[in-house]
Amino acid sequence: MFDSVQTLLDEHRELTRRLSDPAVHADAALARRLGRRFAELGAVAAAHEVWTVAAADLADARELAGEGGDDAAAFAEELPGLEAAEAEAAERLRRLLIPRDPDDARDVILEIKGGEGGEEAALFAGDLLRMYLRYAESRGWKAEVLSATHSDLGGYKDVHVAIRGSATDPAEGVYARLKFEGGVHRVQRVPVTESQGRIHTSAAGVLVLPEVDAPDEVQIDPNDVKTDVFRSSGPGGQSVNTTDSAVRLTHVPTGIVVSMQNEKSQIQNREAALRVLRSRLLERQRAEQQAEDSAARAAQVRTMDRSERIRTYNFPENRIADHRTGYKAHNLDAVLDGQLEAVVASCIALDEERRLAALGEGA
Q: Which of left, alpha, beta for 85 (phi over 0: left; psi -120 to 50: alpha)?
C-alpha cells in the first residue's frame, strides 16, 4: 500500500539537504519554490509516519489476539479502535497524495467586473470586493487594490486586487483557497434604483490569476508590448488628474490588454499593469500546457452572461447557493461580511473527490 510514497520521501530528504545550502537562498525565487515543495512533502512525510505507526500497532494487536492466551481477549477488544485509527490515517495520507495544482501556493491577482445589470451590477461588484477583502483579512492575508474604475453610484465597473499570504503549506495558499471563485456571480435583490420594489437579477464576473513570483519567471519581450498613455478619469468621465498618467499595455502576440490608472505616477501604473500582464500570461501558459496534457482544470467562466453562473446571492431570502457543489445556506449577510470559508471548503472538497476518483480510474 502507498508504494509511491517512498519516491516522495526521498525527494523530501533531498530538499532538506538543498535547503541547508546557503547558495540556494541566494536565489530568492528558487528558495521560495523549494520551500513550498518542502512544506507540501513535509505534510506527506508526517502523515506517512502516523499511518506507519497505526498500521504496525494494528498488525501487532491482530497477531497477539490470534495467539490465544490470557491477553488475547484484551487485544481483540482493542482491534476496532486500532482499525479505525489506521483507516483514518490511511485516508489522510491518501488525500495528501492527490496531485496538487502547482499554482496552489501562489499569491493571486483578483479581477472583478460588473456584468449585465448596469449600475446594480457595479454595486454588486463592490459587494464582492468587500467580501474578498474581509475574507483576506480573516486569514491574515494582505490585499492591495491595483486599479479600480468606479461607477456613478459608487460601485465598480472593474477592479484589480493583489492578495498575498505567508503560508508555506500549498493547501493554505491564497490561490488554493480562491481559485474556485473564478466565474460569474449572480445577485437577486431590489436595486437602489428600483422604485417599485421589484427584485432584479444582475451579475458580476470574477477572474482569479496566480501571481508571478519573480518578473523573470514569465519572459516578456519589450518589443511585443504596445504602450499607450492617457489621462485617468473617475465616475462619469470626471478627470482625476491633468497628466497622462494612466497606462494601457497591449501584448501584441496574445492580444491581452491591461489598463491601470489608480496611481498618479505613470511609472507606478505601468508596474501594476505589468504585474497583471505577467499573471495573465502565466495563466495562459498553464492553460495551454494543461490542454496539451489533457489534464483540464475546472474552467473559470470568462463571460458576464447571467446564465453562466457559479453562484447565486439571493438577498430577499438571505441565501447563498453554489451551483457546482450544491452548497446552500441562509447566511448571505455573514458571507458578504467575509465569512466565506464554508463555501470555499465545499469547492475544495468537491475538487478533492474528483481528483481521488481520477486516481482510482487510473489505478
A: alpha
Neighbours of 178 (CB within 10 A): 25
Distance from C-alpha of 239 to C-alpha of 230, rounded to nearest angstrom: 11
Q: What is the pLDDT of residues 227-248, one digit of tens each?
A: 998 877 655 444 455 567 889 9
Write down which residue in 62, 96, 130 finishes a domain.
96
Indicate if 159 and 90 belong to the same structural domain.
Answer: no
Q: In the block, which residue shows the cell 540556494?
A: 24
The neighbouring-strand residues paired with 188 are 201, 314
In this prediction the pTM is: 0.75
Contact present, 344 and 352 (Cβ < 8 Å): no
Closest CA to 19 of 28, 31, 36, 33: 31
Q: Specify if 168 maps to a domain.
A: yes
Count of Cβ atoms closer than 10 Å to residue 67 Cβ:
10
Give the model confidence (pLDDT) of 261-276 as tens digits: 888 788 989 989 999 9
For residues 147 and 314, is the Cβ–Cβ distance under 8 A? Answer: no
Crossing angle (nearest 10°) for helices 28-66 and 5-19: 140
Q: What stretch of H or E contains 324? A: none
Which of 46, 61, 96 lies at the terminal end of a domain, its last residue? 96
